[in-house]
Amino acid sequence: MSGQALKQYLLRAGSRSSAPRPGPVPPVFERYTTQAQRAVRAAVEIASLLEHAEVSPLHFLLGCLHVPDSLAAAVLEAELAPSEMGTLGEAMERARMYGPNPAHQATGTFTDRARRIVAQDALSCAYRHDHSAISTGHLLLATLDAQDRTIQRIVGSGVMGSGSVHDRLARSLIRALPGEEQHSGRIDDGGVITFDLLIGSLTTWFRSQLPVGWAIRGSGRSGGFRLRVPNSRSEEDFAIDMSWIVTSDQPGRRRLLMVTQHVLSSLQTAVATATGAPWPAQGAADWLPEPHAEIAGDAVNPLLRLWYGSSDRPVLELIPPILVNMVLYERG
Q1: 289 is in which domain, residue-wise?
Q2: What pLDDT score does 123 carry?
Q3: In which band, very low, low, confident or very high, does the pLDDT at 160 lie, cut at 50, 70 and 90?
Q4: Which residues neighbour 328 within 8 Å (Cβ) at sequence distance 6 or greater?
Q5: In terms of domains, do 34 and 131 share one?
Q6: What was the pLDDT predicted at 154?
Q7: Across the chain, what does the average pLDDT equal?
């Protein structure tokens, strides 16, 4: 084995036991509007959903689209040609097709160019226009200047529109600045869900608990889980999506509880619908034990507890619970 190959092997092996840890946010982040901070947070989560090793300029574009009340999202919706999947759905599909290949683990770290966009280029854009706050408009302008090939595939000619869409988009952003985004100080930017690790952990648990013959496939790139019932001729019979939580403006822990409880409920509904019987089964024939998600444990090592039924006598519980620090990055 060559020295370079050995180095790559050791890096992969070491990453298996560690959660993604986005690097320190530069001080200029304090000047970002609430929507722009949410867009950067969304960018890190989208990189995890797409199973991309690092956060690149591409993810800032997608992050802006995941903040529906942002200036950048409004301009993108107006300037890009409509699609049956919608602007956001089309952009995510193009990112899957033309973006980086899936990685063993999403690290959550920024590429040098992405860090420069957040720490310097977006600020420079705001400074040139004499704007005190940095909005998603400034962030997207700096992102468009990155000359990212996948971004060109999404907003350039021949993909989501005709003509020189890239230049027209930049001009529209400049005309729309500064917009009406709010600058209310630092938000809960630390609540970044590491979807690839969370989905992997839940897939292992569900696979061991589903009725005999059921198949489950979970991945960040599919946004959640795909279920197949026994003897089915379809590739999938049920789908459970988790990506919708990225657009939420709730704090990180709240979003983690919302999305995991949604998954528990959706899985239960799928099995009960297909089998015509309650799942997990216990008690009366028509009784469905309620799904629950809770943050437990101490402040240093909080645990994500997931179960069905009562808290003291659960019908089914994830054992051991998931370490919150493994699936949620929280700024200290």
Answers
A1: 192-329
A2: 93
A3: very low
A4: 191, 192, 193, 194, 252, 253, 256
A5: yes
A6: 83
A7: 85
